[in-house]
TrEMBL record:
Function: Part of the twin-arginine translocation (Tat) system that transports large folded proteins containing a characteristic twin-arginine motif in their signal peptide across membranes. Together with TatC, TatB is part of a receptor directly interacting with Tat signal peptides. TatB may form an oligomeric binding site that transiently accommodates folded Tat precursor proteins before their translocation.
Chain's gene name: tatB
Membrane-crossing segments per the record: 6-22
Localization: Cell membrane; Membrane
Name of this chain's protein: Sec-independent protein translocase protein TatB
InterPro entries hit by this protein: TatA/B/E, TatB
Family from the record: Belongs to the TatB family.
Gene3D superfamilies, per the entry: 1.20.5.3310
Biased composition (Basic and acidic residues): 126-149
Pfam families registered for this protein in UniProt: TatA_B_E
Organism of origin: Streptomyces narbonensis
Domain of life of the organism encoding this protein: Bacteria
Length: 149
């Protein structure tokens, strides 16, 4: 429950509790808090047992932690044979190559199957695109409208 509290933080909490409640009332406050926590745990356990008894014997080994979506998916995927097949399929599929082929088809270019340093060899250089754009920007600049700014 308190696994993430360090020793210095625990000492600070004790000192703060002594300052707030005083040394005379502190033992009674600790007893009251521990009694409250015990009652909450007992209430929670009895509610879980009531739910299990209402669900019937087929849910005898039901755990409420299974309702967490991450835990549920982890348990479902552990022994699943289809998952192994998906991992094998993922290993044969190259998303970058497929996306480059689609982009080439859209722009009516020939696709380049060879790659250089992880990028397709037939893709245009980004610097060349910027240079072309800069040249066209100097030629076809829109008129300046001082009232619009």
């Amino acid at each position: 429950m308190f696994s993430d509290i360090g020793a210095l933080e625990l000492v600070a909490l004790v000192v703060l509790a002594v300052l707030v409640f005083g040394p005379d009332k502190l033992p009674k406050v600790i007893q009251d808090v521990s009694r409250f926590i015990r009652k909450v745990r007992d209430f929670s356990d009895s509610a879980k047992e009531d739910i299990r008894s209402e669900l019937g014997p087929e849910f005898k080994d039901f755990e409420f932690e299974d309702l967490n979506p991450k835990t549920f998916l982890r348990k479902q995927m552990e022994g699943n044979e289809d998952l192994r097949e998906l991992k094998e399929l993922r290993g044969t599929f190259d998303l970058k190559k497929e996306m480059n082929e689609v982009a080439d088809a859209v722009h009516n270019r020939e696709s380049a199957p060879a790659t250089v340093n992880g990028s397709a060899a037939g893709t245009p250089d980004l610097l060349k695109k910027q240079d072309k754009q800069a040249k066209t920007d100097t030629v076809e600049r829109p008129p300046y409208d001082s009232d619009a700014t």
